[in-house]
Amino acid sequence: MHTIQLNIDDSIFDKFMGLLEMLPRDKVEVTSGREYPSISFEEAKQKVQKAVNSISENKGIPLNQAIEKILQS
Questions:
Q1: What is the pLDDT of residues 4-20, one digit of tens each?
Q2: What is the dihedral of CA 26, 13, 47, 61, to 10 degrees?
Q3: For residues 25 and 44, is the Cβ–Cβ distance under 8 A?
Q4: In this structure, what DSSP letter does residue 1 have?
Q5: How far apart are CA 44 and CA 52, in angstroms?
Q6: DSSP letters for 4-73
Q7: C-alpha closest to that of 35 among 71, 10, 69, 15
Q8: CA nearest 24: which of 4, 5, 7, 1?
Q9: Which of 4, 23, 27, 39 has its CA at a distance of 20 to 30 angstroms from the CA of residue 65?
């Protein structure tokens, strides 16, 4: 197995990580520092979709509560 280190621009980072997620898990191991989220690309995509759908249903939480929740993680 080979190891590479990449510096990827923010504008294409999510697309690149999505590409890696499509590759066989037993063939590619993604190890990254603080930039890569602790959830999978699919999980993040589902959470964003749920949040977007909740906006029109007025099920959101105030911004300051959302920020506090993130900072507590």
A1: 888 888 899 889 988 98
A2: 150
A3: no
A4: -
A5: 12
A6: ------HHHHHHHHHHHHHS-TTT-----STTS-SS-HHHHHHHHHHHHHHHHTT----HHHHHHHHHH-
A7: 10
A8: 1
A9: 39
